[in-house]
Amino acid sequence: MKLVCFDLDGVLVDSMDWHFRAFSEAIKEVTGQPMDPAYHEDELKGIPTLRKIEKLVNAGFLPQDQAAQVARLKTVFFNERVRENLEPDLVKIAMIKQLKRDFLHVAVVSNCNRQNAERLLRGIGLLDEIEYLVSSSDVVAGKPSPEGYYKAMLYFRVSPLETLILEDSLVGLDAAHASGATYLPVNRVEDVTYEFVARHM
Fold this sequence. Notes:
By secondary structure, the protein is an alpha/beta fold. It has helices at 16-31, 37-44, 49-58, 67-85, 90-101, 114-123, 147-156, 170-179, 194-199; strands at residues 3-6, 105-109, 132-134, 163-167, 182-185. It is 50% helix and 10% strand. Helix 8 (170-179) links the parallel strand 4 and strand 5 (182-185). The longest helix has 19 residues, at 67-85. The protein is globular, with a radius of gyration of 17 Å. The N and C termini lie close together (7 Å).
């Protein structure tokens, strides 16, 4: 292995619930109806906010003229949670530092937009530690497309056989599988340590 790619939400940062609650609050604020947790889990988890909104509009759950307001409020509510909850993660910082000492490249490939991805990485102390970030702002097709992972491999000039991917969501795992790389499912953010990664290299 020469490259380790990490997803962000649910792998490096325990922020999936922040995304859901912020999105649900935005939907309720605009429409008067809360987001159904089961529907979000089955249909929307792990995909960018604008694609979530697009799916809701196409399914008839959200009028098109309310889409921009939902997107704006979701960002506001999510940023509030980041400010209230985020702090440097010494375990993740030590993991990334050790992987680089092992002569491995380290990238983050996320379905977050670049602004949110950088905000989360800065909050946990990793923005200056990772070597390359691919966000939803940097690709034509987000996950489950493997485009983001191909972009990271191309940047470091490595093949899928030289790449390990850590993912938690179904769309992320689909993207990892489609990339041809070795991939490791993550159940909890707390599990992602240097020892956990090294054991599966």
